[in-house]
Amino acid sequence: MSHPRYGLNFLFGAIAWVNFAGLAHADVVPAWVAAARDENSEIQKGKAELNAALARVPQAKSLPDPAIEFEVMGENAFGAEQTVRLAQGFPWPGTLGQRESSASLQARAYWHEVQNLELAVASRIRAIAVEIAFLRKEASLVRENLELFKKQEDFLEQVSRGGGEVSDLVRVEMESGLLGDELAKIDEMVEREKAELEAIVGRPIPDSEINRVVMPSRSVPREKTESLAARLEATNPMLQALSSRVEAARAGVSLARLETYPEFMVSAGYRRVNEPGMGESSEWMNEAVVMFSISLPIWGEKNSGKRDEASAMLEAAVRERENSSRMLRSQLEILLSRGRDATRRAKLFHDQLLPKARQSHQTVEASYRADRANLLDVFESRRRLLETETGYWRAVADKYINRAEIEALFGTEIQNRKLTAEMKGHKKTQRGD
Length: 433
Description:
By secondary structure, the protein is α+β, with helices and mostly antiparallel strands. It has helices spanning 8-14, 28-39, 41-60, 95-161, 167-201, 207-210, 228-235, 237-258, 300-369, 375-408, 416-431, and strands at 67-76, 79-90, 264-276, 282-294.
């Protein structure tokens, strides 16, 4: 069968599907993903487990270690004897191949699990980048409103010095204070997102990189969902890993049966015998020795226990994959529903609510300048406009975050030819070629 190297460079090449074009000036996001590949502790742990699984493959297909036996019998009435033998054990035919198959399938499962880890990390980095971009956009909207209130605050201070009412000034100052508090909360939220990002990437993230991630200005593309459910079964890396574990468990059933059969031992050697002759004379004789032995697997409970254990492990692996498949299909449906909802909200805000909120705000401001509305009406219209603008960008951010989570469910199908080539490369690396 084909043996995977499960090459990690190839794996991150496969993550080229991640569409970072959704974020303007988001060239830092692929760099964060690349850094996480080399520094993220969870990914490094997965790689170490993969390397350990790969190292078990040549062990599984190897014969037992041969043994060299020395035997010396001192001189007695029957003479003396010196023997050296080389013994080699042989499992039942087909056992080594089945062990190799099981170990290779387990290594394949680890490869898919590493792929799943890297896809999940890339998705989380992308989601954090979108969240930071949204928070920065929200902060810019709040800051714009705060600047407007500050300008109005300066104007009302001049009015109050001239003997005018101070109540409007107090109200504006209160609104400015609330917006300032909101801005401070957003800044802290950005810091929290940045802290999580640094933990995932494995290195400090300078503010200059954070500042390069902004929300997209173009419309949100519609998700194509017609064949996603079918693709999930074929390409989800975790399901592929579990499928490999099912096949490994199935190989284990065959292996358990083979291991209840006899094992053989063949030895060949040289024996030197000193036989006493007539009188005090003696004669040394040289002999070639060949021996053959066979094990006797006669303990029925032990043998049936091996077979029953292997069958139970296969049943557990099959059930685990079935459950994971159902859960992933459910997760996909939930994400698709969230995506549709985010698309609906983004369209609603962009096409209807935002134009109406802007028109309403302009109308209230015109009425206020004409003394037909009070300052509270202006505050309310501005709050409503800010909430509507924030709601639109929240929907856009949710859409892109949801897309990142959906794409994390899908991996790249592995071609046996590529796996074979990569496995050969892995062997050359191990030999130091």
